[in-house]
Amino acid sequence: MDKYEKVKKIGEGSFGKAILVKSKEDGRPYVIKEIGISGMPSKERQESRKEVAVLAKMSHPNIVQYKESFEEAGSLYIVMDYCEGGDLFKKINSQKGVLFSEEQILDWFVQICLALKHVHDRKILHRDIKSQNIFLTKDGTIQLGDFGIARVLNSTVELARTCIGTPYYLSPEICENKPYNNKSDIWALGCVLYEMCTLKHAFEAGNMKNLVLKIIRGSYPPVSVHYSHELRSLLAQLFKRNPRERPSVSSILDKSFLSCRIERFLTPQLIAQEFRHTFLHKQPKIAKRPAPGFIPLTPAQKITKPATKYGVPLTVRKVSDAARKSAERKPAVKHKPVSSLLTVMMGCSEKKRMELIEKERKQREQMFLLKAEQMKRYEKEKINRINQAREQGWKHVLSSSGGVVK
């Protein structure tokens, strides 16, 4: 810390303090994130150092720029650029109830997505997306910060206890004590988008137990119809309870009402670099060059050629002229007429057989519909039982863990 002069503490988050400092070398302001690692096991300390090394290689217009890191007196210090515009949380609160325009929301949201895409493309999870970790530069550019640190906390209860205030951004899978994944970042992204649209948190409750129940049920007040259908539909996709049903950040940016804004924030060179793998995936497959002497068959030929269709050589014998003339000279064989009674009997038996077939078909159809209805009822009952057990389990876990909101 000898190279920096402390100005003031500007925040205290889940994993340490944020201190505004001034460099003694160039006089520029920086933010130092102080993380206490002395109490961590050796493996987790090493993991934190690895994440800082990854952070050092990150370079993107919408990500807070890393400067350096060092360890001192049992703490890890990460030095980052200072965003003079403050964080998005403070910006939202300063609105005093006046909603942002959709134009402003989409511009900010696209920049957040561009930053998250850069992170996810490198197989890194942010783990702590929230409006307090999204910053504005002096010229109004959005920058994402404070990611990677949350890996040192694994269990839901530990995460909930460590969070200062209510953990509004927890996803249903985290509430169910499942591993964090990239779709958990997408859920948190949805929470931020909702916050920008309503100036409120999507999930609010008086205590941790009720908050978790709301998140698991996915119940939140609707966004104003003042905003477009595309925006409200996107929000519903981000809040899918099943992580697999949530879109990836790349598919979000692929939506036409968002993709048209990307060129406002990235140079053509950077767009080509960031979306290179997407372009490569969309390239048409190159057809294989046919072998010499190969004669391609048209679809009609492939169908009409028996040898091609059935895989066996089928030949048709030609009848000689003499044999054909001989066959023409032979008189036609006269068959004995079948009695009219036999004809009627055959007709009746055929009619009876068709009636039986139709009856069996209807019975099978009714059985199939009955089974389908039973399966549908069984699945509905099963889902209800799972939801009830899940809610009861969480009530027990949270009451025993003392998860009360400050």
From TrEMBL:
<keyword id="KW-0479">Metal-binding</keyword>
<dbReference type="Pfam" id="PF00069">
    <property type="entry name" value="Pkinase"/>
</dbReference>
<dbReference type="InterPro" id="IPR011009">
    <property type="entry name" value="Kinase-like_dom_sf"/>
</dbReference>
<feature type="domain" description="Protein kinase">
    <location>
        <begin position="4"/>
        <end position="258"/>
    </location>
</feature>
<keyword id="KW-0808">Transferase</keyword>
<keyword id="KW-0547">Nucleotide-binding</keyword>
<dbReference type="InterPro" id="IPR000719">
    <property type="entry name" value="Prot_kinase_dom"/>
</dbReference>
<dbReference type="InterPro" id="IPR008271">
    <property type="entry name" value="Ser/Thr_kinase_AS"/>
</dbReference>
<dbReference type="GO" id="GO:0046872">
    <property type="term" value="F:metal ion binding"/>
</dbReference>
<dbReference type="GO" id="GO:0004674">
    <property type="term" value="F:protein serine/threonine kinase activity"/>
</dbReference>
<dbReference type="InterPro" id="IPR017441">
    <property type="entry name" value="Protein_kinase_ATP_BS"/>
</dbReference>
<keyword id="KW-0067">ATP-binding</keyword>
<dbReference type="GO" id="GO:0005524">
    <property type="term" value="F:ATP binding"/>
</dbReference>
<feature type="binding site">
    <location>
        <position position="33"/>
    </location>
    <ligand>
        <name>ATP</name>
    </ligand>
</feature>
<keyword id="KW-0723">Serine/threonine-protein kinase</keyword>
<keyword id="KW-0460">Magnesium</keyword>
<comment type="similarity">
    <text>Belongs to the protein kinase superfamily. NEK Ser/Thr protein kinase family. NIMA subfamily.</text>
</comment>
<dbReference type="InterPro" id="IPR051131">
    <property type="entry name" value="NEK_Ser/Thr_kinase_NIMA"/>
</dbReference>
<keyword id="KW-0418">Kinase</keyword>
<protein>
    <recommendedName>
        <fullName>non-specific serine/threonine protein kinase</fullName>
        <ecNumber>2.7.11.1</ecNumber>
    </recommendedName>
</protein>
